[in-house]
């Protein structure tokens, strides 16, 4: 009954997420390289008549890239989205969307002026009704076509440079699976050649901001298709877990009684079909994933290669990762040492922060542990556990941001792998988002985590932590400055006293200002930390 009621909402609600806007997936838009659809509110492109935005040339970052991708002009994702469009809507104020018809994350209201902060909660803290609603929402998204977006089934060259559009419809959930695939797929070089060392969403600085945007868009999509504006993604806190606690029919699906690689028939997810899991097949055909069904979700948690992932991450692993002060380091890829990003992503040891791609820690450990659809990067979002997992990974990112309070400049502006510099637009999102725009606390983006809403004292301690760390680094200098200042003060005091003795006192005209007794108690003493 719940699913029937939710399905009815499709008639009156239109979802909006990312990838190719349906209204721009045509010959005219591709040949003109312009995607500036009208806003329904006033009928003008980008809502210009209502001062929501205007159609503008895309400003691409000119910062140099790292050496990981030695090609140019061979991949549609280079300088995203300029291969397809070089003019899009640039929205003003708190407006957002491919036609400036939405509010930025964290804002709501008719004119997008009302701030809001919603709370993501632990899935095990949800009531039975809330949990069942979440599962129903997931299933609804899997069965509702996206109204606003389509996916590309061919490259720009295969589309004859725009004169032969190749797009197709897709359901709301699979739209996000496809976007995750598209961002992480190999580069097709022609013939049977591919370049594998490329990923616009992983193995580089943009890993955390990219998935942050991905979850925000997914969250908003669910809100729109269900009409539940208060919906937030739950998270699974997997620290110190001995097994997959959500892998049962009450939550994300238990094990099949006769085939341990499949889900229990009692789970709604057992009927789901996966897409975009056959990367070698696409590569050999020099084709893109067309989002056709490729079989059921596969999952066999715990029966993974123990030499690579011996256990699920511990609380100690997370705490060590949070102690790392550098967001990024060295080559800024999976070989980076002492990098918070690389350690959280799982390519560096969670006890030493030294790169070790042969092992899988933290984020990567969960994917490998699931031993199925989640264990292959391009198709990992097929398993709905992906959403719970990445929500918790994002919460760790949030803890690091709150603890260290980095300036935007901490995020690399140049020399990161392709697509990962601060001002690069994230592939394959339209509307456009830059990596650096999401290197900020979650509350500025309209959401928080239940377990991070700590008492005021802890918040004050979190506030002081980065300053205390800075103080430790310059402690010797501070002590030296204090000693030097004391010596100078003593010398000057001695000189002043000597001068007073010579002049025999000070006239009233040059005496220091005196404090009237009635004003004495009004003085405010301030100290700078």
TrEMBL record:
It is a single-pass type I membrane protein. InterPro entries: Di-copper_centre_dom_sf, Tyrosinase/Hemocyanin, Tyrosinase_Cu-bd. Residues 202-219, 383-394 form the Tyrosinase copper-binding domain. Residues 1-18 form the signal peptide. It is an enzyme of class 1 (oxidoreductase). Its main location: membrane. Keywords: Copper, Glycoprotein, Melanin biosynthesis, Membrane, Metal-binding, Monooxygenase, Oxidoreductase, Signal, Transmembrane, Transmembrane helix. Residues 287-313 are annotated as: Disordered. The chain crosses the membrane at residues 474-496. It is found in: Melanosome membrane. Its EC number is 1.14.18.1. The keyword Transport does not apply. GO terms for biological process: melanin biosynthetic process; pigmentation. Belongs to the tyrosinase family. PANTHER family: TYROSINASE (PTHR11474:SF124), TYROSINASE FAMILY MEMBER (PTHR11474). This is Tyrosinase.
